[in-house]
Specification:
By secondary structure, this protein is of the alpha+beta class. It has a single domain, classed as 2-Layer Sandwich (YaeB-like fold), CATH 3.30.2310.20. The chain has helices spanning about 10-25, 30-45; strands spanning about 5, 55, 60, 70-75, 80-85. The protein has a five-stranded mixed sheet with strand order 1-5-4-3-2. β4 (about 70-75) and β5 (about 80-85) form a beta hairpin. α1 (about 10-25) packs antiparallel against α2.
Length: about 100
């Protein structure tokens, strides 16, 4: 059973910003980032407990192609994405979103 996936406002803004940046570098690259992040979110939705806990109940799934991680909280009926962060950003930036 898949859980519903929701993005908090900050994660949604980060994701949109990253997509626009990649799209500005090469047409279609932003769409490729979207596809990879969607795959990560789908994996988290299908099997949330398989991903490592990084802080309290927050888990992280790492992209293979792009240098991004998705930080999420698994709740009873949904996955809440707290951050879509580039690997060079401070990984604790999402702590105030918990």
């Amino acid at each position: 059973m898949s859980l519903l996936i929701t993005f908090n406002r900050a994660a949604s803004a980060e994701f949109s910003e990253a997509t626009a940046w990649y799209e500005s570098k090469r047409i279609g690259l932003g769409k490729e980032l979207i596809a990879e992040i969607e795959q990560l979110c789908d994996a988290a939705s299908e099997h949330p407990l398989q991903f490592a806990v990084v802080h309290k109940d927050i888990r992280r799934v790492v992209a293979k192609r792009f240098p991004f991680s998705v930080y999420f909280r698994a709740q009873k009926h949904r996955i809440v994405v707290l951050a879509v962060l580039h690997g060079r950003r401070d990984p604790t930036i999402w702590l105030d979103r918990t």
